[in-house]
Amino acid sequence: MSRIDELVERLCPDGVPYETLRTVAQISGRNIQPSAMGDATVTVYSLPAFDNNRTAERLIGSDVGSAKTALAHPTVLVAKLNPHIPRVWKLASIPNNSYSSPEFFPLVPDPNRLDLGFLYYFISTQLGKLASTVTGSTNSHKRLHREDFLGLRIPVPPLEVQHEIVKILDTFTDLEAELEAELEAELESRRQQYAYYEEELVSRSQIGPTYRLSELESQGIISLGRGKVISKKTIAALPGDYPVYSSSGAGSGEFGRYGDYLFSDERITWSIDGGGRFFYRPPHRYSITNVSGWMTVDNDIIRTRYLYYVLTAAWHHEKFDYTRKAHPSVIRDLYHISVPPLSDQDRLVRRLDTFDALVNNLTSGLPAELNARRQQYEYYRDKLLTFKELKS
Length: 392
Known about the structure:
Low-confidence stretches: none
Oligomer: single chain
Strand order of the largest sheet: 3-6-9-4-5
Strand content: 15-25%
Largest sheet: 5 strands, mixed
Number of helices: 12
Radius of gyration: 27 Å
Structural class: alpha+beta
Helix content: 40-55%
Number of domains: 3
CATH architecture of the largest domain: Alpha-Beta Complex
Distance between the termini: 27 Å
Number of strands: 20
CATH superfamily of the largest domain: DNA methylase specificity domains
CATH class of the largest domain: Alpha Beta
């Protein structure tokens, strides 16, 4: 019999009471205007800060910008605004002059009834249910409502049982974080090896005279252009299965799925507003938005995938930002390439494709392993937080 089983058998053998959240916790804090914060340094917990690194921002009160909710007690912050639902964070200690953005419900437990960690872990099991209760006119303005939230039913076992559950789940969470960090570090190491290998092989293949993209364009070897304006509203009006790619510095750049398409051939696209990153698009039906560029290639002279590798290697040495964007007019004269024989191009593509597949296999394997771990953790957490209800 486990330690928790022993405690339950001794302290609540007939079950535990289930109560509405409002009876054992309260949404705490009041809104404070920046003018009332003065020039003191304040700690601000916001959704962007959590998105970036799960830490708070340190600001001068007069620089905060809008009203914030004052925090004074250990708190569980629950996001109440789409698209951040479901998200929850635990603040076990609150520095002086601390505030949260109004997009949170700051939930403070009754310390005589409810352990902060127990509340945090329980709310984590309810996120799907909470997300299903949001209402609003548009997706971005849908909100979780206070009364729906406070009406959640929560088991309230003796504090000794709660403390033991929190201790176990904290340990499990720490182990999961360590594993995730190790796997991410391994993946990053493989990516760095691949980037070095790619650049070295591309560099060796680039011998002989070089040509600006504009020169190749004038010779009819390549063509450059931009996508068209396709908004979320446009996609919503004609939903479908064809991917729309937009400006992106990560992932595939997919923006949504549309009921029409612009292209069906092999192309190179790049992210004009997303740092100038290049993408290889194999033949399929797709579109790109106006913040992406496209490039077609005469494959009897330059293989599209070879050019993609060459441009990607060169792109790593460039920097694009809001003042220098990767417009076609910019990259036409920025990138210089040589054109080796097709047999050499094909050989390089085969070698880089093989290595790329190894990295991608690791990339796909990493989320799969992490997901399996998370599912195991969630199953164990949910089991620990489920009790026989005490009959009234």
